[in-house]
Amino acid sequence: MKKIMLAVTAVFVSAALFAQNATQQKKAEDVVKFKELTYNFGKIKQNAPVNHDFVFSNTSDKPVIIESATPSCGCTTPVFPQAPVAAGKADKITAGFNAAAAGPFNKTITVKVAGIDAPLEIRITGDVLTADDYAKFEKEKGSKTSKTGGNK
Questions:
Q1: What's the whole-number mean pLDDT along residues 63-92?
Q2: Which of 40, 62, 77, 111 could form a disulfide with 96 if both were Cys (CB 3.0 to 4.6 A apart)?
Q3: Distance separating alpha carbons of residues 103 and 127, to the nearest angstrom
Q4: Would you list the domain boundaries of the chain?
Q5: Residues 6+ positions from 26 with CB-CB distance below 8 Å
Q6: Residue 41 vs residues 20, 102, 105, 107: alpha-carbon distances, Å
């Protein structure tokens, strides 16, 4: 009877260990490493498109495929690599933004890596100024650099 109980206990312990390994899912961060996850454009002019490249490296030992890069709104247009990214190599996701409305913004792009259930988010932020406000901002910025004796 003790041998049967010992055998049954060993089976349950083994099953529990294998179940834990199966539930430990990889995250996108486990296979791709972004140089930065957030980029602040600062002050930008309304209706003037801007872009930023989010550079990432494949940190796994296999090629990685970016399945999708889904923006949080239609004013953000991500462009992601269509070909697999080889192990140890780098590539980029370009985040384009064109704001129709003035004011601060905080937009996300959800990046889905093939074979990984948990996606990751990259983010762009900034402040959209009307044409008049942007002209004032540029003028003030220009007068500050001329007072300091150069571009700093």
A1: 96
A2: 77
A3: 5
A4: 28-148
A5: 115, 116, 117, 118
A6: 43, 14, 10, 12
